[in-house]
Amino acid sequence: MVFDEPKIVSEKEQEQSYAAFVNMENLLDKLKLLKYEQEFLKDFKIKPIHRYYFVVTKNPGEQFYLFSILAAWLIRKCGKHLENPQELDDPNDTISKIVNEARAIGIVFDFPVSKLKQGVGEQVVYILDQLAIHAVKKNNVILNRPKPPEEKEEETEVLEDESEINLDRVEEEMLAAYSDDSDEENLFHLDDLKPVRKEIHSSELKQNIDEESWKLELERVLPRLKVTIKNDNRDWRSHLEQMKTYKKSIDESLGTTKAQLEKLHKDISSTLEKVTNREKYFNR
């Protein structure tokens, strides 16, 4: 078997390759400031440029033509005059015109101009980015600091049902009632401990009790005698129930999953065995 030798890439080369992607994204931001979507794309009737269009090689001929007309458009944005290149023009002549105008604007570079002939790469992105920087300055594009929207605190209104009694609220009211009592009222009196006998005759009870009114009062108060208990997420019982539910679902899906994994393991083992035998055959 033939294996490709590993290519050693220096840290500097890695940084340069990554920088091209970053510069391409910055270039698109500057093009949007120059309204290239309303002017450039509309005039040439083309789709918006992908953010990695001039970094990754896809269609060299198309990429070089788009680079040339975009560079010419940026040069005109810088106040210079350069006609739009045509697809059938000599690439060397087109690059020469773009480079001459770029140097006249004040762009400095030390790489061979033949690198621009590819229409893609770090050098192409650099030229377009520098032209865009000068075009932004020439058109007096003012960049204001972004103003984040003011965050308004949403007031959460808690609607309490009058027909329900909250245990926490009842406890707080009871504590407040006891704390408001004076010290004198909290003192015990021995006389108060003596039972007070009061004889109440059954006839008096019957006279003071109205059965219908008691039923009406019971019907009115009954809905309010509902007690709600808040769910506490820290309660270990709720976590235990969740764990039982998860374990049950895992056990249910384990059967089918285990069979599929065993079949996959069998297929992979068979394939590896075939590859090993083929390697032994070629290495004879």
UniProtKB/TrEMBL annotation:
<dbReference type="GO" id="GO:1905515">
    <property type="term" value="P:non-motile cilium assembly"/>
</dbReference>
<protein>
    <recommendedName>
        <fullName>Intraflagellar transport protein 57 homolog</fullName>
    </recommendedName>
</protein>
<dbReference type="GO" id="GO:0005929">
    <property type="term" value="C:cilium"/>
</dbReference>
<dbReference type="GO" id="GO:0030992">
    <property type="term" value="C:intraciliary transport particle B"/>
</dbReference>
<dbReference type="GO" id="GO:0042073">
    <property type="term" value="P:intraciliary transport"/>
</dbReference>
<comment type="similarity">
    <text>Belongs to the IFT57 family.</text>
</comment>
<keyword id="KW-0969">Cilium</keyword>
<dbReference type="GO" id="GO:0005815">
    <property type="term" value="C:microtubule organizing center"/>
</dbReference>
<dbReference type="Pfam" id="PF10498">
    <property type="entry name" value="IFT57"/>
</dbReference>
<dbReference type="GO" id="GO:0005794">
    <property type="term" value="C:Golgi apparatus"/>
</dbReference>
<dbReference type="InterPro" id="IPR019530">
    <property type="entry name" value="Intra-flagellar_transport_57"/>
</dbReference>
<keyword id="KW-0966">Cell projection</keyword>
